[in-house]
Amino acid sequence: MGAGQPGNRERPIIMTDRTITDPKPIDTTTSDPKTSDSARFLSHLELDQPDKTFLDSNELVINMGPQHPATHGVLRVILKLDGEKVLGTECVIGYLHRGVEKIAENRTYTMFNPYVDRMDYVAAVSNGLGYCEAVEKLLNIEAPPRAKYIRVILTELNRMASHQLWLGTHALDIGAMTPLFYTFRDREEILKIFEKYCGARLTTHAFRIGGCQYETYEGFERDVTKFLDFAPPKIDEYEELLTTNRIWLERTKNVGVISRADAIALGVTGPVLRASGVKWDLRKAQPYAAYSDFDFEIPIGANGDTYDRYTVRMEEMRQSLRIIRQAVERIPEGPIMAKVPKVMKPPVGEVYHSIEAPKGELGYFIVSDGSTQPYRVRVRPPSFVNLQALDVMVRGALVADVIAVIGTLDIVLGEVDR
Amino acid sequence: MQQVVQPGMQPVATTFFFYFLSGLTLLSGVFVIIRKNPVHSALALIFGLLAQAGLYLMLYAPFVAGVQIILYAGGIMVLFLFVIMLVNIERSQREEQFNKQWVVGLLAAVALGALFVVVYVKGKALFPYRIAQPIESSNTQQIGVMLYGQYMFAFEIASLLLLVAIIGAVVMAKKRI
Amino acid sequence: MLDYITSYLSSNTTPGQAGNVFWALVYIMIVFGGVSVAVMAMNWLERKALAHFQIRLGPMRVGPHGLLQPIADAIKLMTKEDIIPAEADKFVFWIAPLIILCASFAVYIVVPFGPTHAITDLNIGILFMLGVSSLSVLGVVMAGWASNSHYPLIGALRSSAQMVSYEVAMGMAVVSAVLMTSLHGIGPYGVGVGTSGTGTLSMIGIVQAQQEQHVWFLFKFFPLGFIAFGIFAIAMVAETNRAPFDLPEAESELTAGFHTEYSGLRWSLFMLGEYAAMIAVSSIAVTLWLGGWFRPFPNTLTGDTWDLVFSLFPGLTFLALAAIAFVGVRRMPKHPYFRVQTIGLAGFGAVLGLIGLILFVPPVRDRIQDIFWFVAKVAGFMYLYIWYRATFPRYRFDQLMKVGWKVLLPIGIGVLILTAILGVVL
Description:
The complex is a heterotrimer.
Chain A lengths: L36 H6 L16 E6 L11 E7 L2 E8 L7 H5 L4 H9 L6 H16 L5 H30 L3 H21 L8 E2 L2 E2 L7 H23 L3 H7 L7 H7 L4 H5 L6 H4 L20 H24 L19 E9 L2 E9 L7 E5 L1 H6 L1 H6 L4 H11 L3 H5 L1
Antiparallel strand pairs in A: 1-2, 2-3, 4-5, 6-7, 7-8
Chain B lengths: L13 H21 L3 H21 L3 H25 L3 H4 L8 H22 L15 H11 L2 H22 L4
Chain C lengths: L1 H8 L5 H4 L2 H33 L15 H10 L11 H17 L18 H10 L1 H11 L3 H31 L22 H10 L11 H16 L25 H25 L14 H8 L1 H18 L8 H20 L3 H30 L5 H29 L1
Helix pairs in contact in C: 3-11, 3-15, 5-7, 5-11, 7-8, 8-10, 8-16, 10-11, 10-16, 11-15, 13-14
């Protein structure tokens, strides 16, 4: 166990007021079913009861398995039902765990950049933005204004694309088949812009530490402006299909309600939090990457039910278009890359930087020990934290509502599991 | 357009259909009793009821036949099947098919059979023609007139009984979704 | 023998009423074949229409524009392995789709395509139709039970509960339409004495009552007839387990529906029964409220010229379809790979055009009128079914039952009472 061995590096001591000098180890010696951590965790499911047939007992434990058309990825949800009513849930995750954070310890900062796209693969640009900005904070450099504007435009386009995918899949889960095809068709326009800009549609790797690598291509502003004219009637079309539809209202109103206090206590962020009435958006609260130059609003909801989350995200789509319009009109000229050393060796330190990804607060906690490879990269995925709210939201609801609520939380398993 | 049987139109193959349908009814009845699986018994009962509806048709009572199909075969038997399926049927599979008291059962069946024969012989006088007569006005109309005229009180009492049953069912089932 | 056959041709009753077994069998064959073709066409139309609603194309490869897709599906399903679950009850497993199929197809005995174009005209026509279509609930329950697995059983019980609930609402709507057959007056608000006013349950009789009263029951005692029609239209969608009431068979829900364990030909029998039931309840709706086989505006636009104009419609419809086919031929890619498809589509268009031209010939034109208008109205309903499926989200099961019992049934009873009161007063 020496310092310098791969995987066994000593943690650099960075004394802050939060540093614990002698942490207590987690007690793994006992596996007593009564007191071990996992038993306490799952005790409300009463899995040690003798097997009863589902016809005899009042409660039924069933499994919405990893493969399921409606769980947006490989998520396993164990439900305890009383007839049709849900008494409790337990999410089993980890089916998509790829060890991204461990991989980061063996890659240089630049080499790790493509890996972050693969976490929230639906909205890859935001992941890249968060990581690049976190490393820039660590290196104490700032991207030039032109790069910041390009970053904002691409990130907001990416927010629009992510919300469109969310809308299509959420509507499909509730039974409306058609909006899926419309949103995917309109999402194509955004993906075309991404492809022309950086060569990839999904895992874009658009930004670099210190700015952007690619200059905007010839016709970028024209394409983006064309998209800005193309999109609002489409959003109106989605709203026309769903917003006042009686069946949609019945399926989404008062379904999956989470109160303001619960949302703050559980740490959910993003549209879920805003729909519960909390006006908290990192783009306004802790502005990053030129967001302070733009004029936009933060939509909030009143009840915290599924319908409010739907309206909040629809309005966010429109506000994104507003930001993009302001940005594309006045992209400043100048360099797109700051002066970044060829070999990046950030000083010893740690940084936590979070951005407002489409799904919530996406945070990066990077610990640097002075070498070219980070000591630890910890990602705070918004979907992982929001998924905890599932249990609170579906207690007492019906099974069909569980699927609606998973859809409305907008989780991506790549992010939850990393 | 009413189905009044024209003089030239004769029902076809009455004897064959009568023996066929009544044979089917009897066979279904036997199957109801001898099958171990309650769902098979219910199925056999459904066939028996449908055959009986055919017999009603032969008696020129189409309304009764239609109502038999809708209510009995399509409604009540569905409820029977619901109950059978929600009850644990493994226990019924293990039960004895024919129990030890078959002597008493046989005696009771013979007595019932003798009663049927007596009723038939005594009641032959009521049906001098022994063939169902086509009636002038339609079956539906006749039933309507009698039900809402002569038997109005009984009709209302029956509907009240059904209302009580519905309310009872709703109260018992109300606690759970 | 020949006498027996030809003596029917000059009569003006249905074969059942004339007691003519031969012609009854002929009609049965025609109707059975027609319904089977209609089911296949409906399968194709659903896939294409749904695709076009969703801005995609649907099947395009199997046959020109996917026209042979239903045949390919049928062949595939017939050659699939027949899997029976391990502990399933083999007899019940086998008979459940047959019950649904027989129940759905037996309804067609009384469907009136014209004043004499029905297999028979039972005295209790509408009662028979409702009763026999309610037998398909038995098939659903048995299919779910025979699969010997939790989820199909739950799905089957839900599905049958839904069907039974909406039958009640359907019955209320049907009774108010039957009430209207016993009215005397002419026109939407029938005052005065103009008709014989004998109520009837027979399907042909109901359409003839609409003729005598000079109004489609849709517009009778407006808005009562319209509301009754609306109740029936909603209830019939729920009765056949179609969107937006298709929770029991939706894939994204937990319980996967009563036909999960069925594979291959058995599953296709379920789909056949479902489509046949859809066409059957649509024909009930058309007969009861939309005037059956009558052309539009039979009383406001009268006269020989209008009769002539409306009689041209069948031919024109087929010619329009042929024109669409030829437009498709022109738009086919010119690559040699598509040569067979282009020729096939052109042939299909030619056949349609030929049928259209034949339908212009006066003797055929007069005979085909009733059947054409009836089928056209039912086809409109089929398109509505597909439209609903493309547009609406799904109702949750408790909301579904709530709509059936707490919304449709009270409105149905109210319409019935008001119709009865108006019928006596006016």
